[in-house]
Amino acid sequence: MTLLKQDNVCPLSVEVDIAPAFGFGLITDKKGQRPGVPYLLLAAENQTGFVVGQHLAYYEEMYHHLSDIMERILLESPMHLPHQFLIKQEITRRNLQPLARSLNIKIKKTSRLTAIAEARRALSRFTSRTVS
User: Best exposed site among 15, 62, 91, 98 by fewest CB in 10 Å?
Assistant: First the structure.
């Protein structure tokens, strides 16, 4: 059940993408757990490039809880709800679908996420390796 309200929707598009974040090194959630490569979710408004939110987690957590993670990002964001999510990967669409359906937000697949690409370039300046 979502805490967000449909009446706050405005004509913005938010790009959403998930990729390995090699520049952050390995992470562990629990003591004794084997370290793993973190995945970085970035969400950015596609016209201004404003980064709406980010989340760093293991691959499994990221995809199994993507709707919940994205809902939390939108709740914490100062902007209104977008009218659509722009994505590149079909797995992202499948895992965002519950949230998008409950809020009547469209999901559009595209070949380029320019705001996300720019955010990654800027982020790579602050990490030892490029954030993929």
Answer: 91
